[in-house]
């Protein structure tokens, strides 16, 4: 058991709610960098849309195994006129870590970092972000080991 979650056992009834995303900072002076890995794309595209509708510019870094297996790629690409969208495909772990570190350096302490995906991915982005931004400006949406979505700040 992890994070007070009970394991799902065969024949258990499970309620799956609508994924919740953290509030997006709407201060025009604040830079927002969004990272998603794999199935974390749904949360990040929602945040990007919210920023776009508020007239905020943003930067998205979508990490996926391949162009063919990229979740919501068209939705991200449709947001390109509001912000920068980058897709990173088929990167080994070390190169993926270098790429995510490079994309946030240098930045200011008030930059808002949003990341969503598997725990290893979000933990890595959080570690890298702590070198640049204030801890309260790092927003993680973790896909837990049991397949549930949790917000973690």
Question: Keyphrases for this structure?
Answer:
153 residues, 23% strand, 6 strands, six-stranded mixed sheet, Rossmann fold, alpha/beta, globular, 26% helix, 4 helices
Question: What is the element layout, followed by pairings?
Answer:
Blueprint: E1 32-37, H1 41-53, E2 59-64, H2 73-77, E3 84-89, H3 93-103, E4 112-118, H4 119-129, E5 138-143, E6 149-152
Parallel strand pairs: 1-2, 1-4, 2-3, 4-5
Antiparallel strand pairs: 5-6
Please give a quick description of this structure.
With 153 residues, the protein is of the alpha/beta class. The chain contains four helices and six strands; from the N terminus they run βαβαβαβαββ. The model has no long low-confidence stretch (mean pLDDT 82).
Note down, in words, how this protein is organized.
The chain is an alpha/beta fold and 153 residues long. It has one domain: Rossmann fold. The chain contains four helices and six strands, in the order E-H-E-H-E-H-E-H-E-E. It has helices spanning 41-53, 73-77, 93-103, 119-129; strands spanning 32-37, 59-64, 84-89, 112-118, 138-143, 149-152. The protein has a six-stranded mixed beta sheet with strand order 3-2-1-4-5-6, with helices on both faces. It is globular. It starts with 31 loop residues before the first strand and ends with a strand. The mean pLDDT is 82.
């Amino acid at each position: 058991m992890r994070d007070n979650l009970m394991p799902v056992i065969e024949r258990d009834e499970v309620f799956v709610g609508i994924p919740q995303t953290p509030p997006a900072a709407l201060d025009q002076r604040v830079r927002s960098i969004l990272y998603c890995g794999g199935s974390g794309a749904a949360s990040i595209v929602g945040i990007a849309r919210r920023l776009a509708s508020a007239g905020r510019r943003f930067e998205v870094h979508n990490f996926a195994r391949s162009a063919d297996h990229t979740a919501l790629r068209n939705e991200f690409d449709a947001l390109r006129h509001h912000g920068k969208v980058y897709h990173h495909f088929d990167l080994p772990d070390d190169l993926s870590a270098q790429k995510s570190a490079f994309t946030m350096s240098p930045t200011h302490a008030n930059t808002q970092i949003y990341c969503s995906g598997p725990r290893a991915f979000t933990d890595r982005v959080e570690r890298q972000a702590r070198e640049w931004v204030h801890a309260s400006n790092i927003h993680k949406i973790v896909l837990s080991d049991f397949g549930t979505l949790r917000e973690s700040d």
